[in-house]
Write a structure and sequence with these properties.
The protein is about 45% helix and about 20% strand. It has about 250 residues and is α/β, with parallel strands linked by helices. It has one domain: 3-Layer(aba) Sandwich (Rossmann fold). It has a seven-stranded mixed β-sheet with strand order 3-2-1-4-5-7-6, sandwiched between helices. The longest helix is centred in the C-terminal third of the chain and has 21 residues, at about 190-210. It is globular and about 50 Å long. The protein starts with a helix and ends with a strand. The mean pLDDT is about 100. Bound molecules: S-adenosyl-L-homocysteine (SAH).
Length: about 250
Amino acid sequence: MDIPRIFTVTESAHRIHNPITPDKLATLGAALRLEPGTRVLDLASGSGEMLCTWARDLGVVGTGVDLSALFTEHARLRAEELGVTGQVTFIHGDAAGYVSGEKVGLAACVGATWIGGGVAGTIDLLAQSLQSGGIILIGEPFWRQMPPTDAVAAGCLATSIADFLTLPDLLASFGHLGYDVVEMVLADQDGWDRYEAAKWLTMRRWLEANPDDELAAEVRAQLTSEPERYATYTREYLGWGVFALMRQ
Ligand code: SAH
């Protein structure tokens, strides 16, 4: 039970597996005005940077669930490094359908809304773990510029234009689901570079260390094509943000 190995190769050195940067993650945590001791559930917690830094800086406690054994191991090491092992727990497992035993004040899924079959389904899933008056966090891409064709959307690694909304439409969609948008922090192109360009050096070093690996040809092809694809498509057309929601 794990994610496809290619991601654990290309993102093995990432602390944050999204275009949000450490400073923006800190801005978001502060913006939410969480009381120390607030319980957090983070579905698809990756390498645990949000939970670990917010435990250290804001005194929250919580649980992360992620399907990647490697990222979960990195999250546990990060908790040790930041001295927050008493506050956070990382579970290696499938977050689809995961509901916490104890209700939480903040329920998050940052950049993995496929676990609930899309944004609406993921909000419904998170709501099942949320105490009344709690906050839901959703990290999701949106079209920064509308792609003119589905081919351009495909260049952004979307299946079609319909995969994502514009920012105004995404914000409106939360309202249609019965939620107020109470905060947001948006990534910018520099943040996208930190997420995407960081993969390139990781791939290059991995190729040097693993020339005979079964994934070597795929990683070589990605390293060759990704900078130009990314600059042509994702960097221009795709935005990304984390949205804080409260039930109306
Ligand atoms: N929220 C983290 C990770 C986002 S990347 C961050 O912002 O850094 C997407 C994550 O989803 C990866 O860590 C991947 O391992 C995880 N993932 C993918 N499918 C999953 C599933 N079914 N259940 C739990 N985690 C999943």
